[in-house]
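Repro:
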Amino acid sequence: MMFRFVWDKFKKTTMFEKMLLVVGLAISVLGFYWINNMYMREPKVTWPLLQAAFSYLLLIFMVILTDSNESIKEELKIVIKEQAQEIRYLRNIANEQLDEIRLLRRDLTMKKR
């Protein structure tokens, strides 16, 4: 059941999100491998090791932020469509009310004559 849910979610993703997933996994595996090799060569905490680990974490954080921005963009697209429909609906109502006001004014001017 859970696998089905995850698979359905994965099918709904865009091509950009799928590419980002592959790139993120590659960054995670390769970065961990390189940092692990660096530590195995010299099993002390050195500045180059700390710099590599910090850069690795920043890179992963950037991938997460990129995915978040993409998700927000997709959600905003839906909200903008709904707002455009609402604005069209409100304009139609306003136009109908303006037509009614014009008819009422015309009737009042005819009654005064």
